[in-house]
Design goal:
Strand order of the largest sheet: 1-2
Radius of gyration: 22 Å
């Protein structure tokens, strides 16, 4: 077992980060600074603040014996289902069992599609499934940064 740090890169979180970055008054914030190093430092601080606030890093325990599609969410759902079973709540147990089956089948699809063999490769396949979201976020941040640079250059050439 080992621990890794990860962010929740759900599309809703990425969209929220995008809205945050669009609402930042970049021109007002960066106008007092002359050097590009200072502006880059401010930009980096704001982007890091947004990422750390909206998508904070969370510690996740990874067991080497777990199947690659067993996520923390599935583990929590299994624990809730087991608690419902031990308490004798058959209706909740049935509902949670149905949810668990549905979520597990969705989680297994990226793994079986890539036909990975080793744990490290399969964990990357899960990451690859989420990497598309990460890549979208990176692309979005690059576009925002390019727009920011273009505005900064336009302001600098006016002065």
């Amino acid at each position: 077992m080992y621990t890794i740090k990860a962010r929740d890169k759900q599309p809703s979180n990425i969209a929220c980060l995008g809205h945050f970055l669009l609402k930042v008054p970049w021109e007002d914030m960066l106008a007092p600074y002359n050097s590009s190093e200072e502006k880059l430092a401010i930009l980096t601080d704001v982007v890091n603040y947004g990422i750390n606030t909206i998508m904070p890093e969370r510690s996740m325990k990874v067991h080497t014996t777990d199947r690659p599609w067993i996520t923390d969410q599935l583990k929590r759902l299994i624990a809730k289902r087991q608690k419902a079973f031990t308490s004798g709540n058959k209706s909740l147990y049935a509902v949670l069992g149905t949810k668990l089956t549905a979520k597990e089948s969705v989680a297994v699809k990226p793994i079986t599609a890539t036909k990975c063999i080793t744990f490290k490769t399969t964990s990357l396949a899960i990451g690859g499934w989420k990497l598309s979201n990460c890549a979208a976020m990176a692309g979005f941040l690059v576009r925002i940064f390019v727009q920011f640079l273009m505005k900064t250059l336009a302001i600098a050439t006016k002065n």
